[in-house]
Each structure stands twice: as C-alpha cells, then as structure tokens.
Inverse folding.
C-alpha cells in the first residue's frame, strides 16, 4: 500500500468529515467520478496556497486509488 493511501486511511479514522467525503466519492459511478476529477482539477488550477495544494493532493491520490480505498472500506 502506498504511504499516501495509508495516510488518507489514517486521516479517515481521525476525522469523520474526511471519511464522509471518501464514502460519498466511492458511491459515485465511474462517470460521476471522472466529472468530479475534472472539476477538482479545474478548480485547483489557479490555487497556490498550502491548504489548496494539500487538498488537491488528497483528491488526486484518492481518485487515482479509489478501487484500493473501496476494497479496504468493504473489509472494515
């Protein structure tokens, strides 16, 4: 498991808001997720703050590994 994936899984345990976001995205269809990815990319294109960069990294890692997250959450 990639360290970034483990970091998000740990954050989900500590923060129910992050877990809620992750669960909502997992429930999306592939098409909805792709549209979401495009919107996130477009939104963060012009953002430069540290918080924005970290948020973009979170969504990028999550969306690239959504199947791994789904499997882990199903096992819980």
């Amino acid at each position: 498991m990639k360290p970034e994936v483990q970091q998000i899984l740990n954050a989900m345990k500590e923060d129910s808001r992050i877990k809620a976001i992750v669960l909502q995205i997992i429930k999306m269809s592939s098409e909805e997720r792709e549209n979401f990815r495009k919107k996130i990319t477009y939104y963060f294109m012009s953002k430069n703050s540290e918080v924005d960069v970290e948020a973009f990294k979170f969504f990028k890692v999550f969306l690239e590994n959504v199947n791994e997250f789904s499997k882990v959450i199903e096992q819980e």
Observations:
- The helical segments are 3-14, 16-27, 30-44, 50-64, 66-75.
- The chain has five helices and no strands.
- The mean pLDDT is 93.
- The two ends are 16 Å apart (CA to CA).
